[in-house]
Amino acid sequence: MAIDRKHAVAVMVVAVLAAYLFFSLAWISLPGPDADEVLFIAVWYRYSPISFYVDHFRIFHSNIVTMVGSYNGALKGWLWSLFFAVNRSMYTVRIPAALLGGVILALFYCWVRRLYSGPTALVALLLAATDPVYIISSRIDSGPVVLQRLLLLVGILAGTSWLLDRARPARAHSRLAASGLCLGLALWDKATFAWCLLALAATLLVLFPREMLRRLRPYPAAVFLLFLCLGSLPLPVFNVRAADSGTRGFIQWEPFDAERWTNKWANFRLTLNGRYLYTAMGGELIERGRSGNGG
């Protein structure tokens, strides 16, 4: 009976993941490329006179690109070079991102199941896999966001394993190192990931205050911070080289004027009615174009 139940759960998990893959891969080449989506190709064309990456180091007469923007790292570019070596098209730009979105969902299911239960994990997986925002932002990886989600979730999984493993502290510290490295790589991938780190830290202190204070001693904290710094190393190196024109040169508080708050209120209303992402991708412009053509 238990085997049949496990088999049924496995079938449902596979079905949910298959549904996600169907919707994320359907008409994968449409719409056309977004500027932010293909920013990473600077890594592939690093020897071209039109290359627009902002930082690199040279080794064996080769340019090893580290930053493709003031706050965008070259991690995605180096990973996607494996696919570009086979073919360069919208398919090799988007299909790997969509597939990684499926991997993220599978890891998310495993994490929720470990902390809670199988039925809870299945419901969470269903909600995440059928979320239009998740599907669209995975297939059109404009930001980028897919690698950040993957590294964040792997970092959380490794950190959870460290937090719950009380029997083997040495092995647990290696998981803490893996967590720090993944989160550091995500920070290099895009510096705005710092907001995710702050949110994660606040969540841990709110939900697990006693456990965190009991286990986060100087040595494990040093291990985590060391590997966090190693993972994000290209980002601070770039900022040291670039001085005020680096990432921190673009950090500023937004003005509290009427125009800014009017725009925020409009975006808030779009979010409530579920049209923010659609509008941000030019959906309303397409609708107006069709209306004009029809008239």
Low-confidence stretches: 291-295
The major β-sheet equals: 2 strands, antiparallel
What fraction of residues sit in β-strands? under 5%
Residue share in helix:
55-70%
The string of secondary-structure elements, in order, is HEEHHHHHHHHHHHHH
Query: Gyration radius, to the nearest Å?
Result: 21 Å
User: Which term fits the overall shape?
Assistant: globular
Strand arrangement within the widest β-sheet reads 1-2
The computed structural class is mainly alpha
- How much is the average pLDDT? 84
Strands, total number: 2
End-to-end distance, in Å?
63 Å
Number of helices: 14
Spell out the blueprint of helices and strands.
Elements: H1 2-25, E1 55-59, E2 62-67, H2 75-84, H3 90-115, H4 118-129, H5 132-139, H6 146-164, H7 169-189, H8 194-207, H9 209-215, H10 218-231, H11 234-242, H12 258-272, H13 276-280, H14 283-294
Antiparallel strand pairs: 1-2
General description of the model:
By secondary structure, this protein is mainly α. The chain has a domain at 145-245. It contains 14 helices and two strands; from the N terminus they run αββααααααααααααα. The chain has helices at residues 2-25, 75-84, 90-115, 118-129, 132-139, 146-164, 169-189, 194-207, 209-215, 218-231, 234-242, 258-272, 276-280, 283-294; strands spanning 55-59, 62-67. Strands 1-2 form a two-stranded antiparallel sheet. A hairpin with a 2-residue loop joins strand 1 (55-59) and strand 2. The longest helix has 26 residues, at 90-115. It is globular and about 60 Å long. The model is unreliable at 291-295 (pLDDT under 50).
